[in-house]
Amino acid sequence: MSQWLDSLTLWLSANPQWLGLAIFLIACIECLAIAGIIVPGTIILFAVGVLAGNGALTLWETLALAYFGGLLGDALSYTAGRYFHQDIRRLPGLRQHPQWLAAAENYFQRFGVASLLVGRYIGPLRPMLPMVAGMLNMPLGRFIAVSMLAAAGWAIAYMLPGWATGAALRLPLPPGFWPQAGALAAGLALALLVSAHGSLRGQRHASLLAAGLSLALLIGLMYSWPQLTQLDQGLLALIQEQRSASLDSLMVLVTRLGDFQTQLAAGVLLCLVLLATRQWRMASFAGMALLGTALANDALKNLFARTRPQVLLEPLDSFSFPSGHSSAAFALCLVLALLAGRGQPPRMRLTWLLLGGLPAAAIAGSRVYLGAHWPSDIIAGAVLAACICALSLTLVQWRSPLSALSARIWWLLLPAILALLGGIAIWHWSAAQLLYRY
Questions:
Q1: From residue 230, how far is each of 11, 160, 372 by CA, in Å?
Q2: Dist CA 303 CA 162 (whole Å)
Q3: What is the DSSP string of 212-229?
Q4: pLDDT tens digits, residue range 170-189?
Q5: Which of 284, 283, 262, 406 is nearest to 329 (CA)?
Q6: Is the CB of residue 128 less than 8 Å from the CB of residue 37?
Q7: Are 381 and 301 in contact (CB under 8 A)?
Q8: Which residues contact 65 (CB under 8 A, 6 or more apart)?
Q9: Rounded to two decimals, what is the model's pTM?
Q10: Domains of the chain, first to last
Q11: Distance, CA of 388 to CA of 296 (rounded, Å)
């Protein structure tokens, strides 16, 4: 496998004109039924992502190719399931490994549409679920909508790390960039792995462990951020290189979703819905997590008084460490993800957390893209939110775990929050268009 991968990357390095097609086909195969289980697509996608980041392709070209490749893999798998139905079990590969289809079928029947979103990040299930959806006659329109949404998050999660690594190797970064990046990455990875291990083993106070690790990491960031200057400057330069006029307007719209007023409205709406449906403990958890994060962020900002990057034409008045947009967005998304994971197996709870982190990461990333924060600011904001959320969950669940929210409440809660955020986004977009016109 290693020798074959080395040969592939060497050939693509010598023939970069084929790299785009390679990314598209590898993403398609990774999401294709049966083939996606056999071929180690995740490793290959990272390798070709590094090549793309070395200058062969822009970030947006790389993400688009992976996105449409994944969509094609989903479509082919769904079509196969729709065409063969139960005869799909007789296909080569599935005859020898019936457990592949059985696991995906059980997962789909248990979680329905959500399985296509969550299962996208679970290796053995990812290529099989679209085929099962077709086999069980999931409506085509619904499948297309879910697939388009799931493929977007998947493309970012699987291609961005490789592309960023390749771009970092290409740019003339400051001398201390790599030691600082390695130390920070090791700290984040250790905290995530230990927290995930505790959750997977079903430890009673796994959330308390996660809170403690997040707090230790946050304290480390508090004491070391003056030494992270080289890392911040290098990552900021890497991200600023990707700026374009057309993307600036989109990033402004994304960052508006993390504004204090927007997050306050979404948090209040969340708590009101939980209170109206008599979910007292859930409402207590959400209130503690969101309010605690906001208060802690404001206190730390005033304590450290860190100045913002000199990118904005009109620098903001407030300080930058930690990022308020990042902490607020992660707090809201983590609360929703933690509520969604109640009553589910540990692997599903972790997958919900991963899904919840994607929109929050987009809001946090927009702050660095626009030059409003240093990268360490948004990392500190995310870690702060994780710490307060885990601590709040520990306190609420100290005597007994939270029960799962019913589907009826979720059908009330999610559309309300999405409608609120969508309405705010449309309002900001309309205001920007009106301002541009005049």
A1: 34, 21, 17
A2: 36
A3: HHHHHHHHHHHHHGGGGH
A4: 777 777 777 887 888 888 88
A5: 262
A6: yes
A7: no
A8: 20, 23, 24, 27, 57
A9: 0.75
A10: 2-152 (no CATH), 179-437 (1.20.144)
A11: 9
